[in-house]
Amino acid sequence: MAAAMASAAERAVLEEEFKWLLQEEVHGVLRQLQDILKEASHRFALPVGGTEGPIKQENFMLGTSSTDQVKGVLMLQGDALCQADINLKMPRNNQLLHFTFREDKQWKLQQIQDARNHVNQAIYLLTNRDINYQFKTGSEVLKLMDAVMLQLTRARNRLTTPATLTLPEIASSGLTKMFTPALPSDILVNFYINLNKLCLTVYQLHALQPNSTKNFRPTGGSILHNPGAMFECGSQRYEVSHVHKVECVVPWLNDALVFFTVSLQLCQQLKDKVREAIWSCG
């Protein structure tokens, strides 16, 4: 009898602790997550809540490539490249080419836009309930954490995993029409985000003659194509002769990635606590 009473008392304590977890600790973690993710959203220079003022422009100097063939300055405004000023030294004759974006053109960085949208969706999930709402079950909290973590993982993946593109896709992306003077037909460029870096890749091409004895093997999709890669555009076949990759660190992207990591850890810690409480009371 005494053992049964002790067991009942212990169970009552566990159930009271679980109730406190659902009513107090969960809400504390949710408030912490909201604060962190609102900071993350602000880092994208596009505040949440529809109170967007003018977005500041930031200039970034491209780091020199290993052969110092490409130099330039990129101007970033939120999720758009609003200007690119690029100097390219041609290896064949050391001719220096200079290109800038046309004044009527901007290049949207879809990775930044998508990451920001996922962050704001996570914030919506955290705030989309009445201020006095009380969670009734642990599974309800677990379901919310899974949904928030899914959005945060997608946000992080958009910055850490650039989309692979074939060379014909790069050629038809619209970037070739952004510049003044127009890019020569033997130059391709691609901009993308990789982690906390804004990257520019310049491909110099060699047109293959129709009677070329080279075995033509079109290359597949990749983030970065190597010299020797081949592709066909229109009726012309090309081979990549030189590749130059330059990049610059964007500090606020680094901040955002840190916020994503901290938030995912908080979500996982809360999930572990709730699961342990469910198991203890079960």
Automatic annotation (TrEMBL):
Which residues fall in a coiled-coil region? none
Q: Name one Pfam family in it.
A: Rogdi_lz
Q: State any GO CC term.
A: synaptic vesicle
**UniProt main location, coarse:** cytoplasm
Which cellular compartments is it found in? Cytoplasmic vesicle, Secretory vesicle, Synaptic vesicle
Tell me where the signal peptide lies: none
Entry's family note: Belongs to the rogdi family.
Protein name (database record): Protein rogdi homolog
Q: Which species expresses this protein natively?
A: Pelusios castaneus
